[in-house]
Design a protein that fits this description.
Largest interface: A-B, 53 and 53 residues
Oligomer: homodimer
Mean pLDDT of chain A: 90
Number of strands of chain A: 11
Number of helices of chain A: 7
Helix content of chain A: 25-40%
Distance between the termini of chain A: 73 Å
Low-confidence stretches of chain A: 7-11, 244-252
Shape of chain A: globular
CATH superfamily of the largest domain in chain A: Jelly Rolls
Order of helices and strands of chain A: HEEEEEEEEHHHEHHEEH
Structural class of chain A: alpha+beta
Chain lengths: ~250, ~250
DNA sequence: AATTTGTATTGAGCTTGATCAAGTGTTTTT
DNA sequence: AAAAACACTTGATCAAGCTCAATACAAATT
């Protein structure tokens, strides 16, 4: 017997128009009618748990996914069990874009904590965007943004010191949490030191030492995953130069 | 008096359908009719000379550009005169994709030698792709490909040793030249050692030393910009591991 | 042809951050 | 509650690759 009072996940239908993330997410800038059309192809499934794969390298591309709560890392596994963390994703962010090229995922994605996502079947999205210029435009913008973000990361890995890398990392999360209505100075990082190091091209030990040093210098307070940024201006100075930003490596 | 026998650049109209790069370029996979429509919005201007900017960081996005001959580097200049080279582009490659997000170029592009390009006004392209699903699809694919390439570069900068970086660089050019009908083992690099180092996150001196060492080890012959790869298999071993690929830094 | 300027190579020494190793604290399993 | 597994921190040492410096070579300019 089906109990009408039981709310099953399949029945939970949070529409884009009611979603607090709409201004950060794919529907950004769409008219209410367009949003409704987009909404009709979006699927909202059951949540993933810490460590679950959202998809694996080599999987066929079925859907793009938007994080609605929780967080995710994307990474390219290598034969020998190692991996390169490509990025960490927060609510409102679209993942799977690198799979469009070959209709096959080029990286894996794993939930860092309990995580809910909206799935957008790519075939439907493509079709819909064909008849909805505003959606097509938004797709171009999001794809382009991803490229721009990757470029910043290239600069980080190519030119910045360990100190600058961690400061950049922390400020990036600060801003992203702020945009989502959370504190810019007090937050929990869902990933391990190991994953931070991997992402930033540093050894775990270096990350750990830097956290300790930053704390000694009064830049932040850290206790395990809980981070409180105590001096945003000084962190910004480390990242963007001025008296503090002592960058390695030469000019061209 | 206008001499009808003088061919001016404005009159040179190499259509996509006659272009040898069509299979690598934006029109890839379009039907002849669709290609014709795309062709109608493409502009072919006069060539750029070595050192000329195709566009600068901060310029408004007018057009995407495809290299038709020559080569280009894209880079983000930093206040202090330094720069991060983001990538080197060969004929058939589309540049300017990172500008779609803000309709403003996020990097600069400079010709490394005499270089010709096709310009595709983005506004027209977007409009056209709205009524041409195959073109929209191709745009999604190209944007996605760029993201995938950036990810590979992140792995290179985050995990690979200097040796692996240069070997990867050389094999990448080898393959790209081959795709364009040139020799995979004998080619000229149009960029300086400085630019190679910048791109690979290495000092010029390291690049120079590696070229010397690779030559001593019989992997290649190099004289200034002229490179001859003598042992592709061994270069591949450096890049993709096996007995040779001694990579720094740990697994997760 | 000679000078200047820019680019590449080579050497010596140093620094940043990796590696190795041990120890502490936390979480999960039994 | 104890044990095991895991994550993080801290210390000591080492090396890859950067910096500085000198030189060689090529291209451009006079």
């Amino acid at each position: 017997m089906t109990n009408r009072n039981v709310v099953s996940f399949e029945n939970i239908k949070v529409a884009c128009k009611n979603c607090s993330l709409a201004t950060l997410c794919l529907p950004m800038g769409l008219s209410p009618e367009d949003m409704e059309r987009l909404d009709s192809i979006v699927k909202r499934g059951r949540p993933f748990h810490r460590g679950d794969h959202l998809f694996r390298e080599g999987d066929n591309l079925h859907s793009l996914r938007v994080i609605t709560s929780g967080s995710v890392k994307t990474f390219t596994p290598s034969e020998d069990g190692g991996e390169q963390v490509l990025s960490f994703h927060l609510p409102g962010e679209l993942i799977g874009l690198d799979a469009i090229q070959n209709e096959c995922h080029a990286c894996s994605a794993k939930a860092l904590e309990t995580t809910a996502v909206c799935e957008i079947p790519f075939h439907n999205l493509e079709e819909l965007s064909s008849s909805m210029p505003s959606l097509q435009h938004q797709m171009y913008r999001l794809l382009s943004r991803e490229i721009g973000q990757d470029s910043e990361m290239l600069t980080l890995l190519g030119k910045k010191s360990a100190e600058e890398r961690l400061a950049t990392f922390l400020l990036s999360f600060s801003e992203r949490f702020k945009k989502r209505g959370f504190s810019a100075t007090d937050f929990f990082l869902s990933m391990s030191r190991h994953e931070i190091g991997n992402y930033l091209g540093l050894a775990v030990e270096t990350v750990s030492r830097l956290f300790t040093r930053f704390q000694e210098e009064g830049l932040l307070h850290v206790e395990r995953k809980h981070v409180q940024l105590l001096d945003l201006p000084r962190l910004a100075t480390i990242v963007y130069g001025n008296e503090n930003g002592r960058s390695r490596q030469g000019h061209l």
